[in-house]
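Field reference: sequence -> structure
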Amino acid sequence: MDLQLAGKKALVTGSTRGIGRAIAERFAMEGAEVAICARDGGAVAEAVAALNATGAKSWGKALNVGDSGALRSWVEDAAAVLGGIDIVVANASALSFGLSREAFQAAFDVDLMHTVTLVESAMPHLERSGAGSVVAIASIAAVEDLPINAYSDASYGAMKAALLSYLKSLARAVAPKGIRANVVSPGNTLFEGGAWHQIEIDQPEVFRSTIAMTPMGRMARPEEIANVVAFAASPAASYLTGANLVVDGAFTRHI
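Structure field:
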């Protein structure tokens, strides 16, 4: 299937490793131009070099997406470098877990408000695109109270759930402008240096029990999530909007 992404300009936050990196790479494979960001300047430079080596036009900058001013500047700089914006993917997460006020504040600032700021900043460019698309990366923690490490997902899950409500409202508001907005909610995803990789090392019994609860018998690979994001963001999914696409190997039981 031709996703019709060639020449499209895509912005992806939190995109130097894991799911975000895989999303940026998938867009590049499809011929899109990509702007990335993350906090680690060295990691950004490495990722940009790797993307450019594939022949894709890419650009990146180090920043904390919780800094709204820095995020807005990145959006405008990306639009100038790429010559517009067609797609934004809000992937960055504070990965903040727990019941404390501090945990909720960190998740609010990054998981939720960076998405709002990204969308608000990019909206004038998306309106001019003709194929504007927003994708927010949530989590299965947004749709189900997970049985792993009771209470630890409270702040993380609450803000990911807020993304579902926000993107549904956004989809309805911007549909008349020809812009689509969707959520992709990954299940447990394994990659080197990621949270589940660390759990596999430090808490092997938790890792094994989680695998045992997954009907497919394994965790997702980042590229499997990226494939769904690329489709949802692409003109090939032109009537898909306001959706939450759960990609979890049938781990969750919600309907």
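Note: The first strand starts at residue 9 and ends at 13.
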